[in-house]
Model the fold of this input.
Amino acid sequence: MKLSEACDSFLTYLVTEKGDCQATIKSYQIDLESFCKMFDNMEVSEINVETINNYILSLFEQGYSRNSLIKKAEVARYFCKYLKSLDLLNINITDIEVPKNIKRLPHYLSDDEITRLLQTIRDNDDILFYLVVAIAISSGLRVSELVDLKMTDMNLIDGYLKITGKGNKDRIIPLNQDLIIKINEYLETYKKGIKKNKNFFFVHNNGKLLSRQFIYLKLKEYANKSGITKQISPHCLRHTYATLLLNNGAKLKEVQMLLGHSKIETTEIYTHVAKKKVKEKYDEYMRR
Done:
């Protein structure tokens, strides 16, 4: 049976057996049409939990409001429950994910945008802010952790940061060799003559500490110069770090540990980003 035929059957059921009003049935019809369109009217037998959850994910990525997304997801689950009652579908209905607390997909930078942003900062000979951005993208530090970064938090010999985050929880974050070289250059050229606040890693050339506002405004300035049009903030760099990890094979538990999340649910938002990236790569390949 085609999905369109199953939808017609379901709508008839709502009228003849459930006795729903026309407004309710019309609402169901609109949501079911988007469901069928998503799967190009495939056979009911081809539907499984993964395809249904991917449909819900696609709505999430399209920016539907929280209430609209929950409603469409619940209609999809109700429809599948009906199909299962007719033995047309053999799935576990409880495995269909109807989200209750929706967060929008975090903004993150593409590889090209990262390159452009860092090159623009480098072209302006701004070694201080170059390292702010490079360390943020390479470590996923919160902006508060960036401004509070101490010299004692760095182990450049073994190549890692030791960060004390929320709840006084310590986490170890590896540093790549290229970044360590840049850090040593910064220490030898920019920071060597600065006497004030020597225990802090990031300081202005007058010895004053960086502020969150400074990082936010400077990042916006360089993003504009780089031609980056998406919304960008220091937290966007943290999102970029998490996305890079997942896109390159890191496990969710590993990303949770590196970000310092207390709950795995907080980290799971990035799996949506990673799935979107995989889909984009697939679509690009299929167009060749």
Observations:
- The longest helix spans residues 66-85.
- Residues 275-288 have pLDDT under 50 and may be disordered.
